[in-house]
Structures are given as structure tokens and as C-alpha cells.
Amino acid sequence: MNYLTSSVGKKYLMALSGFVLVLFVIGHLLGNLQVFMGPEPINRYSLFLQSLGELLWVARIGLLVMIALHIWTAVSLTLENRAARPIDYMEKNYKKASYASRTMAMSGLIVLAFIIYHLMQFTFMVTHPIYRDLKDPLGRHDVYSMIILGFRQPLIAAGYIVGVFLLCLHLSHGISSMFQSLGLNNNAWRKRLSKGGQFLGWLIFVGYVTIPIAVQVGILHLPSWVTVR
Question: pTM to 2 decimals?
Fold first, then answer.
């Protein structure tokens, strides 16, 4: 337990929790991109997830634990670093740090707020309870129409794009930092991992924002059976 609460232990916990969350972000993106294949694939995928029952809730709780662990270790390490480093040292190295690395704390908090709203909108349907009544011709929850109804509202689409941008800004630095925290980063690989993290982060960004943009420009539209307009 003393190891886990040490600086080194916290770095490992933050890296491992970050790794799990990155895998989820990629998996979630692959699931969402099925919207471009039409209502059938993504509604079938949604039904499969719901059929997992308690296992789905175990996964959701596990993700919440990973998020909480990631936030706790990040805040704790930030406070320790500020207490240990003199002001002149921080000012001296400020220009060497990338914008993404300097704004990790701020982008992380905004991303957290974005995730909470996203869950309230599409997962728990608290902000838009009308989504609960959406059904496709086979009686399944119509996730396809729910996505389009949500993103056809310009403010929600814009907010989603901004939230995903900050998420990917966070990832662009966090991915390379994750390898460093796990001791897998060295002088030979540092630059490659940094570039690779940036590439993956912005690739994820492009993948996510194609959905609200496609809705806004009319590429994705409501199916004929939807009466909610």
C-alpha cells in the first residue's frame, strides 16, 4: 500500500488507468462509427451491449473507478510537483513544455464535465428523456435516431466537438507520458512515442467529430419511421 501511495506508485496507477481509458475511447469510437452503416448495425450493437445485463454495469463501474483513480493520481502528483519544484525552475522549463502538457489539468477537468453531460444525454437520457421512447421497426432502442436527434442541434454538436478536441489534446500528451510512467520510454523512443501519441490523439478526434459534422451537413438523417422532429 505504501508503494501505491508513493510518487512512483501513483505514476504507475495513473498510466495504467489512462491505458484502460484510452482503450475504451478507441472501442467506443469503433462502436459509434457504425452509425455510417445505417440503423441496423448500430441498433443491433446497442442491443448486444444491453443484453450483457449486469456485466455491462460491472464494465461501467470499472470505467468510473478508472476515471476516479486517474483524477486522484493526477491531482495528487500535480500538488506534489508544485510543492517540490522552486518557482524559478518551473519558469525555466515552461517554454520547453508543449501546450498540451501545460494544460493537462485544465483540459482534464473540462473533459470530465463533458463526459458527465455526454452520459446524461446519451447513456442515462436524463437531459433528453424523449430518447427513451425511440424504437426501430424491430422494437429495439433506436440509437441511430437518438444520435441524429442529438447532433442535429448546433449547440450540442459544437459542444461535443469542443469536448472531443480537449479530450484528444489531453490524449496527445497523455499517451506518450503513459509510456514514460511505465518506464517504457527512453531517449531512442521518446520522440517517436511523442509523435505517435499526437497522431493517435488527432486520429481519434477526426473519427469522433465526423459524426456530428455528418449530421449537421445532412449526410446522416432520420429514418422514415421516426415521428419526432
Answer: 0.85
Residue 182, C-alpha cell as written in the block: 511505465
Question: HEC string of 158-219?
Answer: HHHHHHHHHHHHHHHHHHHHHHHHCCCCCCCCHHHHHHHHHHHHHHHHHHHHHHHHHHHCCC
Q: What is the pLDDT of residues 94-153, one digit of tens each?
A: 444 555 555 566 667 778 888 888 889 898 899 889 899 999 999 999 999 999 999 999
Helix, strand, or coil (residue 135) = strand
User: Rounded CA gap, 165 and 211, in Å?
Assistant: 14
Closest CA to 11 of 93, 90, 72, 82: 72
Identify the CATH assignment for 7-216 out of 2.60.40, 1.20.1300, 2.60.120, 3.30.780: 1.20.1300
Per domain, the residue ranges of the chain are 7-216
